[in-house]
């Protein structure tokens, strides 16, 4: 699908990064976040943990659908020009190629992670902290494609979809699906914090 190759012998190429993307249900793709990008995400979560623990955390809270313990957007400086941002945009392009029968030539630079200009909510990518009793009822997102990165495993609180499909994710999994596809998470039943990162992609 992708033909641009990195000439460095020690570097990956885009074909290699996305070769294991799988369809786990009609219109739902699943991938495992590359280790290097998961490590980058760890640094993002360290920063959002600090925000959550701050006495002024309410000022940066990301209000959205669901009854999570806390939600916060990833800060601008952790997203812009990051490998995580590029990875998600390429994943969106991969999705378009697969389901719209397009080539990379036609999807290149069409997918965007929307930036909320002049607002603390930064980009359409945010962290969900779920504690025992947190729930996220059936809902849909804005945008064209939406996804979830499972920073922690999700076996005790699977993501369910309006078509009856349910996914018990492992740490590092990423799923991508149409934004209007309703999904949710039932009440979190364990004392271990469940951390996910949700995002919306747009294309022209």
Describe this structure in words.
By secondary structure, this protein is an alpha+beta fold. The chain has one domain: Jelly Rolls. It has helices spanning 14-17, 35-53, 76-79, 83-100, 104-107; strands spanning 22-25, 28-32, 70-73, 111-113, 125-130, 136-139, 145-150, 159-161, 166-167, 173-178, 183-185, 194-203. The strands form two sheets. Strands 1, 2, 3, 4, 5, 7, 10 and 12 form an eight-stranded antiparallel β-sheet that branches.
Compact overview of the structure:
This protein is of the alpha+beta class. Helices cover 24% and strands 27% of the residues. The protein has 5 helices and 12 strands.
The residue ranges in which pLDDT falls below 50 over 5 or more consecutive positions are none
CATH architecture: Sandwich
Shape: globular
Portion of residues in beta strands equals 25-35%
Whole-number total of structural domains: 1
Mean pLDDT, to the nearest integer, reads 90
Essential attributes:
5 helices; alpha+beta; 204 residues; 27% strand; eight-stranded antiparallel sheet; Jelly Rolls
Helix and strand arrangement:
Blueprint: H1 14-17, E1 22-25, E2 28-32, H2 35-53, E3 70-73, H3 76-79, H4 83-100, H5 104-107, E4 111-113, E5 125-130, E6 136-139, E7 145-150, E8 159-161, E9 166-167, E10 173-178, E11 183-185, E12 194-203
Antiparallel strand pairs: 1-2, 2-10, 3-5, 4-12, 5-12, 6-11, 7-10, 7-12, 8-9, 8-11
């Amino acid at each position: 699908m992708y033909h641009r190759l990195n000439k460095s012998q020690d570097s990956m190429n885009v074909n290699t990064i996305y070769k294991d993307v799988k369809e786990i249900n009609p219109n739902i793709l699943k991938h495992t976040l590359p280790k290097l990008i998961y490590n980058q995400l760890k640094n993002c979560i360290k920063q959002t943990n600090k925000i959550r623990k701050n006495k002024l955390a309410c000022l940066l809270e990301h209000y959205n659908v669901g009854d999570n313990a806390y939600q916060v957007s990833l800060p601008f400086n952790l997203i812009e020009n990051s490998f995580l941002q590029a990875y998600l945009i390429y994943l969106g392009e991969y999705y378009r190629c697969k389901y719209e029968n397009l080539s990379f030539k036609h999807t290149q630079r069409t997918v965007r992670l929307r930036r909320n200009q002049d607002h603390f909510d930064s980009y359409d990518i945010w962290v969900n902290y779920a504690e025992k009793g947190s729930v996220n009822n059936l809902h849909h997102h804005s945008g064209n494609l939406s996804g979830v990165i499972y920073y922690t495993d999700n076996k005790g609180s699977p993501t369910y979809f309006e078509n009856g499909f349910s996914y018990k994710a492992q740490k590092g999994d990423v799923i991508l699906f149409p934004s209007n596809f309703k999904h949710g998470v039932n009440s979190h039943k364990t004392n271990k914090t469940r951390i996910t990162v949700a995002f919306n992609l747009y294309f022209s």
